[in-house]
């Protein structure tokens, strides 16, 4: 008998599994319906031998030294600062919008102070910022919103920015200097040997058994475990009894090219043209030397694996009803993006997983309780 079943071998499930196995000395069964570990961060060499991310680019960045310290137990790192260009009006321009973006787009020669004054003339005052459109037009004005944000957001979410919560575009800064890094976090780096190898080390513990290609629904009626950590979609756990929570999905087209480099930066966005939203070239991210290169085209979709919770008030209200059900579920902890219906970055998922384990450990006692009667209540997050 296992003490724990962990549903999902992505960041949330793997971190909690490692902590329970290492700190509590308890037996853990980790399952995943996919045939691999690492969740959406899964990377592997393609047919040409180029390391790619099967589910689109995953760039690690964080301001938390504690998160870096924890993950460094399972990987070494290579420094990497991600840069993104957007194809706008036939030009490749930096995104997030910065001083060079504005000067090149409009043929100006502003300095930082001049850009700030210019922005003051184009911003549209919004009495109450509630939507993604409100965020952008009140920051950079209507024209930059139309060129960089409106089309991209409509493709990504299948909704107009005026229909989405402000959180969607509030994540993207505007800079009046020439900083063209996509992120400004203290720690920006990639696992030296890839994410999959990091997960392999994390799950390599005598107290952890891993079963891949296994669906929780096929096991839940014949349990041989005491407690559960669930990281899948929370509405699926409850058989969608209150209705389905909306998600956006993605379709990935992986292409290998017989050239050393395909584009000048890791990712190029296409807000105005094409059906896809962006193209990523992985050798920028991994530092791999190879005579060929591989890129991924991303096509947003309304169907397929769930990737992004859709941030609208009615969806949050439905999630809260599922969260109330989860609070009454005995011996189950819910963690991760899908189980808590939040669009978390990787470091945020790790932080949530470590916090969840701390609550588990505090509630059950800080030492192993193998052989004791199992009991307790559900916890979300």
From TrEMBL:
Q: Which InterPro entries match?
A: UDP-GALP_mutase, UDP-GalPyranose_mutase_C
Q: Which cofactor does it need?
A: FAD
| UniProt keyword annotations, A-Z | FAD, Flavoprotein, Isomerase
Which Pfam family is one of this chain's hits? Answer: NAD_binding_8
Where does the record place the UDP-galactopyranose mutase C-terminal domain? 147-343
Query: Does this UniProt record's set of keywords contain Isomerase?
Result: yes
| PANTHER family in the cross-refs | UDP-GALACTOPYRANOSE MUTASE
Name of the protein in question: UDP-galactopyranose mutase
State the species of origin: Paragemmobacter aquarius
Instruction: Point out the gene that encodes the protein.
Output: glf
């Amino acid at each position: 008998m296992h003490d724990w079943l962990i549903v999902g071998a992505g960041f949330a499930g793997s971190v909690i599994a490692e902590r329970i196995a290492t700190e509590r000395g308890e037996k853990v069964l980790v399952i995943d319906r996919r045939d691999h570990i690492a969740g959406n961060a899964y990377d592997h060499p393609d047919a040409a031998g180029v390391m790619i991310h099967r589910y689109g680019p995953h760039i690690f960045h964080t301001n938390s030294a504690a998160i870096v310290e924890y993950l460094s137990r399972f990987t070494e790192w290579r420094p990497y600062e991600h840069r993104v260009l957007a194809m706008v009006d036939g030009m490749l321009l930096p995104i997030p919008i910065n001083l060079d973006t504005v000067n090149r787009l409009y043929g100006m020669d502003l300095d930082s102070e001049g850009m700030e004054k210019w922005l003051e003339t184009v911003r549209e005052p919004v009495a109450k910022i509630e939507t993604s459109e409100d965020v952008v037009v009140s920051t950079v004005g209507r024209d930059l919103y139309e060129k960089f944000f409106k089309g991209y957001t409509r493709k990504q979410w299948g909704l107009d920015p005026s229909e989405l919560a402000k959180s969607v575009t509030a994540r993207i800064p505007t800079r009046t200097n020439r900083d063209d890094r996509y992120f400004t976090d203290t720690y920006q780096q990639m696992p030296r040997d890839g994410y999959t190898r990091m997960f392999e080390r994390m799950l390599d513990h005598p107290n952890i058994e891993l079963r891949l290609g296994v669906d929780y629904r096929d096991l839940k009626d014949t349990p041989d475990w005491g407690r559960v950590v669930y990281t899948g979609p929370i509405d699926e756990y409850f058989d969608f009894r209150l209705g389905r929570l909306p998600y956006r999905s993605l379709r990935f087209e992986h292409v290998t090219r017989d050239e050393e480099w395909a584009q000048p930066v890791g990712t190029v966005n296409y807000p105005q043209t094409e059906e896809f939203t962006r193209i990523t070239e992985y050798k920028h991210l991994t530092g791999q030397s190879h005579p060929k290169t591989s890129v991924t085209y991303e096509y947003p979709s309304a169907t397929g694996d769930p990737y992004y919770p859709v941030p609208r008030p009615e969806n949050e209200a439905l999630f809260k009803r599922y969260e109330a059900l989860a609070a009454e579920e005995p011996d189950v902890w819910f963690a991760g993006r899908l189980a808590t219906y939040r669009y978390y970055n990787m470091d945020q998922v790790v932080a949530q997983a470590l916090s969840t384990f701390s609550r588990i450990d505090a509630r059950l006692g800080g030492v192993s309780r193998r052989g004791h009667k199992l009991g307790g209540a559900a916890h979300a997050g």
